[in-house]
Design a protein that fits this description.
Number of helices: 18
Oligomer: single chain
Largest sheet: 3 strands, mixed
Shape: globular
Helix content: 55-70%
Number of domains: 2
Number of strands: 12
Strand content: 5-15%
Structural class: mainly alpha
Radius of gyration: 22 Å
Amino acid sequence: MEPCQVLARILGVEARVLEELNNKMSQSTGRSGVLEKVCHENQKTINFVLEKLNSKETGAAHVKGVLRKIIYTHEGELLKFLEIIEGKNQFEKAAALARKIANIPKGFFLKKDRAEMILKQRKPENLLKYLKLSTVEEAILKYDVSELFSALRFVESDQWMHKTFDEAYSRFTPADFEEREVEVRVLGSEWRDISKKFVAKKHHNLSHLKEFGVIFLNPVSEDIPGKFLRDFALFLHYFHEVSFYSKLFRKYASGDDFSDKLKSLLRGDVPEVYKTLPGEWLIVQRYLYKEDPNDPRLYIPRVNPESIHWMRGERDLTLFKAEEARLDLSLWHDLDWVGGIFDHGAEEVVSFDLEDNAMSLVSFMEGKNQSFNYHQREAMWTKLFFGYVGGEENAEKLIIENFNKGVIKFN
């Protein structure tokens, strides 16, 4: 098959979509051969990985099993290495290691006292009841305000949250922000009940407040194989997600309608655009497949900042090597976008992305045996975008410049 047809099958779109896109992008950017290069590199990488893993068979079930097995092995190595990291428990050790591995600069975030201001203006009755306290002032004296703020979404009603968000965030200006480091917090045992609600809803034990530059680790252990590596990669992803949104906060600080743009970012708004012309890329800041596998926007060219956060988080993890212990996850380096069609039985796309395979291992161990490839699919679109625009740095610049428009257009 032609490279265009191969990639179209992997991406789940019609070949003509890629043909029209390629023609327009080659004409607009002067960069040709992108589809051919990506297709060749994809197959070459798959062959290399399978050879390294000693996999002779090419059936989908066999390949998925081999990838799950190596995730299991690598998770064990990571947990073994964690034993020599300083910290009172596994949560503190994981936080310390993630901070060591993540490579991000200072960010532009809401001042911490703005969280106190919101709580005082909109008294969180359910939160105070949970803490057995009468006033917000008591709560602020006893607990870190970031922890209080994080707990709101699990104890207050949706109506309270929406009204508070609309009222409070409508008043914020760039003067309410400051430059500071991303903060990592491991929540204490007093938050265990709330943490359980979070984990039950989200299926992982991490949370973040990107407007405040805060990442939380909830103190709830999950002992099913695959979950630790899955969540640790998510931890590193959050560093880059928080850093990316900080760049947008900083950009919008010098323009008009700051509060409206801020609220749109925090809501995760996605344009209601269901058809694009060749040379137009939708900017999607969520994984649409998780919400609706049949969303029409999954069939048009798009670039998802989430895939860039994952790429960077997984790069931090897979390039990190520990001399003190046997820890080498480099096999997974730059595999986030790699996926292949395996035809033994029903045609199926198998993802080679670390996070997709960690999630698949969890599902397998839970008896659901569900496979995932939506991270890989979004990452392959991003890989194509990088190819047309000249790499990661130029791609991020274009995304940030056009983020509020929701579409990147090439004439």
